[in-house]
Amino acid sequence: MKTINSIIFDLGGVLIDWNPEYVFLDVFGNDREKMKWFFDTICTHDWNENQDAGYPLAKATEERVALFPAYEKEIRMFYGRWVEMLGGAISGSVDILKQLINSKEYKIVALTNWSAETFPIALEKFEFLHWFEGIVVSGQEQTRKPFNDIYKITLNRFGLSPSNTIFIDDNLRNVEAAQTLNLNSIQFKSPSQLKQDLKKFNILLA
Fold first, then answer.
1. Is CATH 3.30.1360.20 correct for 6-17+88-199?
2. Measured CA distances, 73 to 28, 80, 206 (Å)
3. pLDDT tens digits for range 54-67
4. Nearest C-alpha neighbor of 191 from the set 50, 92, 62
5. Do 184 and 163 touch, CB atoms closer than 8 A?
């Protein structure tokens, strides 16, 4: 059994519910097919992730409007109404985080793909973000998961050893990238599943 002394949490999808559907399902009149086309074609996942890596939101928005002028209103909504896409905390995960921190057995940090421009909103909204020893925000580092640099930045900044650290993320792509650096990794699917996976590392929670 490996000795675990550190845990790295992803934020969106693990501790925080963020979903652009909260805005755009209504915008497209509950037409999921049309909304999916918009996300697949215009405000794509790759486009949003570019801003997570530090690209300016205003510049990205203007460039996208120039490419798709017929959808100017909807494109401007993506960051203009971004705060409405920020749902609540995933309470079961926050309970796990609290137990781990209260045990005082682990160094607990976070690594998130998040725009540096919008992250202060989350810091103000979610008190538990202030529980971490530190948070590495992709937009501040000008790189993002799944690129190796951001994992190495996190390990070096907090003095973490990959073999003694668990990385938790809902995105399989990010988990697999972490594994190439010998980080013990868990793909998050639900709080109950996370508890079961932590047991495999002899981390027992209530």
1. no
2. 12, 10, 48
3. 999 999 999 999 99
4. 92
5. yes
